[in-house]
Amino acid sequence: MSWNAMIKGISVGASVGAAAFMLVNSKDRKKRTLKRKAGKMLKAAGDALSDMTDILK
């Protein structure tokens, strides 16, 4: 397994875990905004990971 794949897997797993934790432990009225923020966070994490892989190449 390459370092790029390992770093990407760990980062995505941590992001998804944090988003799931926030959704499970929040009140109903905040869930909608948390879902929106989680989507933005995952997109930003994906962009950051693609930048990292470009640098490491």
Can you walk me through this structure?
The protein is mostly helical and 57 residues long. It has one domain. The protein contains two helices and no strands. Helix 1 runs antiparallel to helix 2. The chain is elongated and about 45 Å long.
Key words describing this protein structure:
57 residues; mainly alpha; 2 helices; 89% helix; elongated
| Gross morphology | elongated
Helical region count? 2
Order of helices and strands: HH
Tally of extended strands?
0
Largest sheet: none
| Uncertain residue segments | none
Kindly provide the radius of gyration, computed on alpha-carbon positions and rounded to a whole number of angstroms: 14 Å
- The percentage helix is over 70%
**Total discrete domains:** 1
Summed over residues and divided by their number, the pLDDT gives a mean of 77
Residue share in β-strands: under 5%
Spatial gap, N to C terminus: 15 Å
Structural class: mainly alpha
Describe the secondary structure blueprint for this structure.
Elements: H1 3-24, H2 28-56
Helix pairs in contact: 1-2
Provide a compact summary of the structure.
With 57 residues, this protein is mostly helical. It has helices spanning 3-24, 28-56.
